[in-house]
Write a structure and sequence with these properties.
Pre-mRNA-splicing factor 18; nucleus; mainly alpha; RNA Binding Protein, Prp18, Chain A; Prp18; about 300 residues; 2 domains
């Protein structure tokens, strides 16, 4: 064997040895990665278990502790069953108590509305002139004003719905488009009005309106019922600036009207114009004006 052959064999042997070394290093690196992933998963599982254990040992505030101790588990489950409610198996006692509180508030609210609807069903919504000046009729007047406002909103809804249905009867494309724009505008205004009246309807139900505001609203509704829109608008202006709007020929006993300038430039909130008291008051007063405008369109004189 000559020198060249020996040299070739030696080079080939070293190449094989170098290849095996690289392969072994790669295998060891892959094993290291697998070991690292296993350790990471094991650590994550341990951390999750620790977190779960910490959650199971939840610390309550003193108020929550008193709440939890105020009712037994049996009483709590019984009350929830009476309300046809159930809780998840993993719900804590505090979760159940909070759910019960929400359900009881809802039950009370529904009962209040039921009583209000019964009262409205027994009341005539037509406001009489002599009742506006009667101290004994204040409770009934709150209900009557609320009923008539709801009645006008319902009529407005029906009016918009009828106009939507009538689209198919319009032959002209131009007229149909104009009617669609008109109905869309009315729908938007109606929706805004309903939202803005929520505060007023609540105050009427809970009888939290001031006597002057109630008197002015009664006067406005009285004139609307009698289709006297000029005086209804005049009464609305008095309501806006803070004056008491009495029906023509009626004088408010014990209530002294002040000038509009003093009402608007007064030093405190009570001396301000009603429409400037706060944003919610401004919005429901503006909504009343929209009802007046609707009544003029719906029942023209």
């Amino acid at each position: 064997m000559d020198f060249s052959s020996l040299l070739s064999k030696e080079i080939e042997k070293k190449r094989k040895l170098a290849g095996e070394t690289k392969k072994n290093k790669k295998i060891r690196a892959e094993d290291d990665v697998k070991d690292t992933e296993t350790d990471t998963l094991r650590t994550a599982a341990t951390s999750e278990k620790i977190t779960s254990d910490e959650n199971s040992r939840q610390v309550y505030t003193p108020e929550e502790t008193v709440l939890i101790n105020s009712i037994s588990d049996e009483q709590l489950d019984s009350k929830l069953e009476q309300l046809d409610e159930s809780c998840d198996a993993d719900s804590t006692k505090l979760d159940k108590i909070k759910k019960l509180e929400v359900l009881l508030r809802l039950q009370k609210k529904n009962e209040v509305y039921r009583i209000q609807l019964e009262k409205e069903a027994e009341t005539d919504r037509d406001i009489r002139l002599e009742d506006i000046t009667s101290v004994d009729a204040r409770d009934k007047l709150h209900t009557q004003v609320r009923m008539y406002i709801k009645y006008m909103v319902k009529e407005w809804e029906n009016d918009v719905q009828m106009k939507r249905v009538s689209f198919s009867n319009i032959e002209s494309d131009e007229e149909r488009e104009e009617e669609q724009i008109s109905v869309a505008t009315q729908s938007t205004m109606l929706l805004d009005t309903k939202k803005d009246l929520v505060r007023l309807l609540y105050k009427l139900r809970t009888q939290k309106l001031t006597d002057s505001m109630l008197t002015s609203l009664c006067t406005i509704m009285y004139y609307l019922q009698n289709r006297d829109y000029r005086r209804a608008n005049e009464s609305y202006m008095k309501l806006s600036i803070g004056n008491v709007a009495w029906p023509i020929g009626v004088k408010g006993v014990g209530i002294h009207e002040r000038s509009a300038a003093l009402k608007i430039t007064g030093e405190n909130k009570q001396n301000s114009a009603n429409i400037m008291l706060d944003d919610k008051t401004r919005r429901w007063i503006t909504a009343v004006k929209r009802l007046i405008s609707f009544a003029e369109r719906k029942w023209p004189t």
